[in-house]
Design goal:
The protein is an alpha/beta fold. The chain has helices spanning 14-25, 60-69, 90-111, 138-160, 186-198; strands at residues 6-9, 30-34, 50-54, 75-80, 114-123, 164-169, 208-210. The longest helix is centred in the last third of the chain and has 23 residues, at 138-160. It is globular.
């Protein structure tokens, strides 16, 4: 078993799939979640030590089950990438983008699946940065703002439990969600975020970062 296993939540395409691809190329064990094991999309035919897990972040019971499956695996990096932007009711956007990442990390910590000093990176967005304002940010922005707010409430406790946790804005990335005219390529974004995670220090815990290593205002 790899001594440095990675977990990517929401890995079937885009940023999640690129994380899996790059870590596999480095010889790492990658646990990757997809909603449908029969349709792993961009993970199909990837070479390396890839372990697929069926998982829908909206499923609370499955969240606890997945954490138990990974108990004792010594995850060194957890990347929560699953998210939605539109096409569903606002309450579902809020659940997937704001509640689910917190629920997943809590379950993994409770199960002892993350090694001491393990890195937790939750994908957020600059669209969820309130910057002290009160204007409504739209369904997607509000969900990311709620994620950021709850992360800040939990970060100290997560640190005391041994996690080195941050939220990350991956940039405006050319994916299905970001669109063809986005300014950052998916390979460039993930390469930058991997460097950020590899170099992360305890002083950076509990803060908001961008894909290229800059601190972002809340």
């Amino acid at each position: 078993m790899s001594i440095e296993p990675i977990l990517v939540i929401g890995a079937s395409r885009g940023i999640g799939a690129e994380f899996a691809r790059q870590y596999l190329a480095d010889g790492r064990t990658v646990h990757a979640t997809v909603r449908d094991l029969a349709k792993p999309q961009e993970l199909t035919d990837l070479e390396g030590d890839l372990v697929l897990h069926q998982f829908d972040v909206r499923d609370v019971e499955r969240t606890a089950e997945l954490a138990r499956e990974l108990a004792g695996s010594g995850l060194c990096i957890v990347i929560h990438n699953a998210g939605i932007r539109s096409g569903v009711p606002p309450e579902e956007i809020m659940d997937v983008n704001a509640a689910a990442p917190i629920r997943v990390v809590e379950a993994l910590l409770d199960a002892g699946a993350i090694q001491a000093g393990g890195v937790v990176a939750i994908m957020t967005s600059q669209m969820g940065a309130r910057r002290g304002g009160t204007a409504r940010l739209g369904d997607y922005g509000e969900s990311k703002a709620a994620l950021n707010d709850e992360f800040r409430r939990r970060a100290e406790a997560w640190g005391e439990r041994g996690a080195l946790a941050i939220v990350v804005h991956p940039g405006w990335v050319r994916t299905d969600m970001g669109g063809a005219f986005a300014s950052v390529g998916v390979e460039e974004s993930v390469t930058g975020m991997r460097k950020l995670l590899a170099d992360l220090t305890p002083e950076q815990h509990g803060r908001f970062w961008t894909w290229n290593g800059r601190e972002h205002p809340w």
